[in-house]
Amino acid sequence: MRHYAFSELGQRANNEDFLAFDDQGVFIVCDGVGGNEKGEVASKIVAESFLKALAGGGDFNLALSMAQEGVDHWIEEHPESQGMATTLTVLQLKEGRVHVAWCGDSRIYQFRSGEIIRRTVDHSWVNDAVKAGIITQEEANGHPKSNVITRAIQGSHRPVRLEIEDWGEIELGDVFMLCSDGVLACWADEELECVVSGSSLPEAVATIQKRCAEAANDNATAIFVQVDQHTNGVGGPERVLGIHPKLLASVLLLVVAALLVWLIWPKAEEHEVETIEWANPVMEAINATDVEELSEADEGIQPSTSSNLMTGKGVSD
Q: What is the 3-state secondary structure (H, E, C) of 252-297?
């Protein structure tokens, strides 16, 4: 896997976004909420809690519990931070599959052959309003309430439910993008498709970052992950020539067994020949005795040219 990332300040005084990743196939982008209520602290606590929990073998829900406890602990020691919160997007590439979880309006995209094939659904006021038929999709773009989110991680005093999905198997060439809403304010989905499909990923990332640096009003953060080999989530090969490791192991075992049989079989034939050669003198002595006795008993009888005897001799051979 290859990954690229950026985080632009935009027109804000501080950066409340936080990105994180490890070498186990976990990638995270959080967008802190709260301004003076330390949104940048919330995003850092949550991202680091998820990294730690997932690295220890925990699932998304366990990671959420740890993250909420971390926020609780901070607020206990810093009461002025009451109200801090963060969005979350987390991508985990594990055992050849794509696992995602999110909360809020930060997004995860999956590109295949340059096209968006999957995208998370925002937990936001405008998205809920579109679903309810209150506003149209066109009205949602640039709506005054477009920055109002309906889910965020705030601590156990305000528990939240993550959206968790399995997006299926990884394919060679897949590209994933995790980003905060600052990126989305600068780029429409159709534009992202055009950029990702029209150039190499490093060039696409540079183009996307450039516009965010120049035009973003909010913090703009993104991680791009490219699958340049089939992976099991830790950078190792998950499939070779499209064959699953277990099937590949079975095939290799059969090949080795066949090779061993091939190597041993000629030796068995050679041993059989040697045994026959060792037995030949005895057989010749027996045959000679039989012939001598037969000659004495039936002297004067000529060898037969009967086809039956010829056939019989052929069968015995």
A: HHHHHHHHHHHHHHHHHHHHHHHHHHHHHHHHHHHHHHHHHHHHHH
Q: Which residue has the tokens 């030796």?
A: 267
Q: Which of 224, 175, 179, 227 has its CA nearest to residue 3?
A: 224
Q: How far is CA 204 from the centre of its chain?
A: 22
Nearest Cα to Cα of residue 90 among 165, 1, 4, 16: 165
**60-77 vs 39-55: helix axis angle to the nearest 10?**
140
**Per-domain boundaries in the chain:** 2-239, 255-315
Entry pTM: 0.73
- The CATH number for 2-239, chosen from 1.10.10.10, 3.40.50.1010, 3.60.40.10, 3.40.50.720, is 3.60.40.10
For residue 136, what are the contacts with CB-CB under 8 A and spacing of at least 6?
A: 130
Which tokens sit at 23? 């070498």
Residue 20 phi, psi (nearest 5): -155, 155
Predicted local confidence at residue 145, as pLDDT: 92
Distance CA 277, CA 63 (A): 76
Tokens representing residue 31 in the block: 């967008």
Q: What confidence tens digit (pLDDT) does each residue in 68-108 have? A: 999 999 999 999 999 999 999 999 999 999 999 999 999 99
- Across the range 200-211, mean pLDDT stands at 97
Distance between CA atoms of 233 and 57, rounded to whole angstroms?
13
Q: Which two tokens stand for residue 106?
A: 């930060």
Strand partners, 98: 93, 168
Residue bearing tokens 């061993």: 260
pLDDT tens digits for 261-307? 777 765 544 444 344 444 444 444 434 444 444 344 444 434 333 33
Q: What DSSP state is assigned to residue 4?
A: E
Nearest to 176 by CA among 86, 87, 98, 59: 98
Q: Quote the DSSP letter at residue 2.
A: E
